Input
Amino acid sequence: MKRGVFVWFFLCCFFLSFGFTKKVLAKDKIIVGFTVSQTGKLNAESKEQYNGLSLWKSYVNKQGGIYVKELQKKLPVEFKYYDDESSKERVQQLYVRLITQDGADFLISPYSSGLTASSSIIAEQYEKIMLAIGSASDSIFTKGYTHIFQIYTPASRYLTGSLDLLKAYDPKAKKIAIVFEQSNFAKDVCTAAKDYAVKHGFNVVLFESYDPGTTDFTSILNKVAKKKPDAVIGGGHFSDGETFAKQIFEQKIRVKLVSLLVAPAVPKFAEIGKSALYVTAPSQWEPKAKFSEETAKKLGVPWYGVSGDWFVKNYSKLYGETPGYHAAAGFVAGLVLQKAIEDAGSLKSSKVKKALEAMDLMTFYGRITFDKGDYYGRQLGHDMVYLQWQNCDGKLVKEVVWPEVAKSANFIYPYYKKFK
Amino acid sequence: MKKRYTLLWLIPLILAISLIPIITHSVIYRETVFLILMYITLAVSLNIILGYTGYVSFGHVVFFGIGGYTSFYLMHKFGIHLIFAMIMGGVVSAIIALIVGEAVLKLRGAFFAIATIGINEAIKSLVTNLSWLGGATGMFFNFKIYKTYGGAAKAIWFAYCLMVIVTIVSLVTSYFIKNSKFGYGLFAIREDEDAAIVLGVNAKRFKSIAYAISAFFPGLVGAIFFFKAGNIEPEDAFHLVKSIEMIFMVMLGGFGTISGPPIGAILYERLKGILLVNPLFKNLHMAITGLILLIIILFAPGGIVGTLRNRFKKIRSLLE
Amino acid sequence: MYAWIAALINGILVGLVYGLAAIGLNLIWGVMKVINLSHGAFIALGMFCAYFIFHFAGINPFLAVILILIVGLILGMISYFIVLHRVLDAPELSTLLSTYSLSLIIIGLGTFIFTTNPRAIDIGLGSIGIGNIYIPITKILTGLFSILFTIVLYVFLYKTWTGKAIRAVSLNRAAAEFMGVNSTFILSLSFGIGVGLAMVAGCLIAAIFPFTILSGAVYELKSFVICVLGGLGSPIGALVGGLILGLLENICALKIPVGYIPFIEFVILVIILLVKPTGLITKR
Output
């Protein structure tokens, strides 16, 4: 008798906990679902990406929403999002929840390649379009997915421009040291950079990775100094990149070019003061990058969305800081989705997918087209810009120095100039 | 012999929970229940070494990772079917536990705990450096791999069903261990290892076997989890926080009991699920989890089941 | 050759920092037989204290250490009564988990308030150059502070009445009670000192390396290795353990891929635990 009561008690508790279910509403808005890393190690980057997305939402909704031809009306955009704790465990559960329970029409990926890979499986399974931001990995796009579209320039083309830059300014500089964080992203990028370097006649004198928790780089820098390279490229994420740059300066390593992933592209990088000077970095986008309607015209590609100035101005007004590329990519992911829905005139995945396949446009973030071959969905049109921290009236500023078409200032070479 | 009813309600309860998604065909329930089952198995297996034997395995997640990597590698490189790959994952975990246990089980108390953390970190670092295991990037499945199982959707259902079976087997195993001579030996070791040895318990062998069994199931779970996730990375496979979560579930439910860990696992998953989607608490769930853990340790060290057993003597045969 | 000398110098300096990070853990482990899993959280807290003191009051971390030590002492004593007092005599699992839950609470609240954004303190004292080797002054200062704190703690433990009482309690609590020592106070004081030192370590580390609220975990893991290397309960042991680890990291890095170093560290940890769990350097 007692036993039965007990069992029922537990069952009731269990079902009650499921009671937080919501009904799917009638179609009077477009629901975009995603997860944000509000806690855990990816919090900083993910937050910025979310801010960019939010700005897009208010931009679209101010216009009354996105016009959907099939329904003959404009639908406002609504976000549904959860915290993924920067960990893989919940991502799939939350994406399933977004699709089935919250009725998400379109998905945006979580931040980072690892989490994107996990959520891709769910998106693919339900045939939902997912725009991948914050994930530069190439490997996701070799897996036969057909609904995932990448906004970032992929890892294989991430750091190669630094080598082009070096070659253009100093054809004699041949010795390269590649030092990178043992993480998914950094490893992909640096392996690709190494292959590129070897192919273009550079001599890779050091190719080594460090533990993600590393805070003291002196031992690695000793090794670098021993090899006397012309350039040091690599890095990983923000914290390690910042420390790395700081310690290169403190130990006065005489190299001609320092190019690091992620960290120098973040405005906060300036807090390390003089250590930041002349460091270069690849960036998906920079406030100073000059992609405009004229660039679009020159290339014969249609222009879409807002201007770079508009974005920087409104973002700064809303969040009190200059946007980095995470924010820009967030905003552009929204724009791309908006354009695809308008082109398709429908909310159906299959139609929007066709619109994305056909897409070739220029935005303030650069050009957007997607691969339709073996790497289906991989970003094809967008290119990295390369920035350098320079001194402008006693203040540190980021200037775009490469490629030539987008540059805002001349490249200052070599790096060790500042030691004097 | 006392009459024991615990399994009589526990197994039907787990089955009932597992059937919800199958009957309703609801994917959202499936995801939730999958996590619940995964937590249950992890908690139950940890309980065998932690609860029965009293050895605090702080780095137990290492076996989850080893199982995951073994099976993922087999499936990815050789296209071996999930079932065989999973069993290999479990067996490799158990063998490594036997070898490692031979050495570290000599240590007692906190030293053992620190050593297990060390082992987890060492293996994580090793895997991160091995390029044939994908290094830091890890490995990704080709989407085509799911074709063998009838497409991704079916593959995930298949993984789910396997998880149900593994959970039930782990529960039954933990029940039979507890009520066997072997189990009594383990409890004797927990209470006083030296006395147990004097009384003729072969403590060394008992501990090793218990450790191996408690490593076997996380190996299976790791295999299924990463099959479903589609990729594996050292950061996810050897995440120390998961170890702590396992300990939390065991403590919440009641360590050393049979029904405690499953109850702890269910409550923990639900608690986390609710906190994470609640806008007010989602930024604070870590702190709240910590607070609850602290309260349990300080005021109810027996966990839910232990406290209930002390309070209500009549239901002891039900709650074990 | 230069590389070797540079590795040696840096090994010593970093080793001193590691030693400082481990002293607090070592003291608590030695005196109370408790492995303080909230050690890393308190290191992180120390980093943030230093950060806010530097940014809002403009006080240099090297001057703020005394303030932070006092804050840590008080926080630690309060934590002792909340978290540890009830479970001190329970099996290890209880103290491990209660300190861990404290860490969850601190890190959880910290993530909520500060987010996991990286932060850095740039006091920019420059570098000293010896030949081709450049050493940041902040690192040298931190090394000196580390030695200073070790000496002060050593004198405190061996020369003052309270220090002797701490050692007495760690050897035999009942006997110490008979001698008129208030063991509860002494235990809470030792926990307070341990936490205070952890926060001081955090404060000084923040002056050299950038950090986030999660940074403490790295130093906590290293501290385990150091405590095991150096032996428990003695401040000198922690310093020696730290030096060994620092030198190991820097010298090994010249010969093997840097990525393997954590693997080597943890293998050493496990081996030493197995071979000589009381630590490499112990007096008795």
